[in-house]
């Protein structure tokens, strides 16, 4: 498929949509991550239709945890069943998400997709200037990745709020909806959050909250995030996140 003009210079980053992060019972499962799988699948489908570069960002670790953060090395004992061990079942993408020939896979070992990786140089070589981010989890890997992207001067960085999740809806909605922050990085992040407005609205249509009777505040926040004319006066806040893995 020839790259469509409206997808030129844009990449979709799918962060950590792996079985260990999504499967209930896993020691690093992010509660709420299962509910966004259909939305992430839709985002990938839309990206491919528009000729947008799809980048799969995953965690894969040494079985002894020698490449994991120091404070998490106690979780590793040389077993394939330890979290996100390279080649393990838990390190695989969740069912329904498939890497195709034109996609790019990037392995990271820290929160940010940019830290200690070749992501920035790869995106520069592909002439990517705009990023759209989906996956888990919002206050950790999503936040760190998008803040780094802002500091690296990408023209726009967009988080699709209903295709991202955190350990609780309160943490997720709080981080993506509060406009009272004084964080400069967060303010800059929101200067172009309207990118993919129409596509995000399609995802939102079928969105289901973490609970069957999700709060009205959550619903309103999600709708607000998809306003087409957000400016630097509307900002994300840095939330006190959970102590989850990624």
TrEMBL record:
Q: Which domain of life is it from?
A: Eukaryota
Residue limits of the Isochorismatase-like domain? 10-172
- Check the record and name the InterPro entries matching this protein: Isochorismatase-like_dom, Isochorismatase-like_sf
Gene3D superfamilies named among the record's database cross-references = Isochorismatase-like
Q: Which family does it belong to?
A: Belongs to the isochorismatase family.
What is the recorded name of this protein? Isochorismatase-like domain-containing protein
* Species per Swiss-Prot/TrEMBL record: Papaver somniferum (Opium poppy)
Per the UniProt record, the lineage of the source organism begins with: Eukaryota, Viridiplantae, Streptophyta, Embryophyta, Tracheophyta
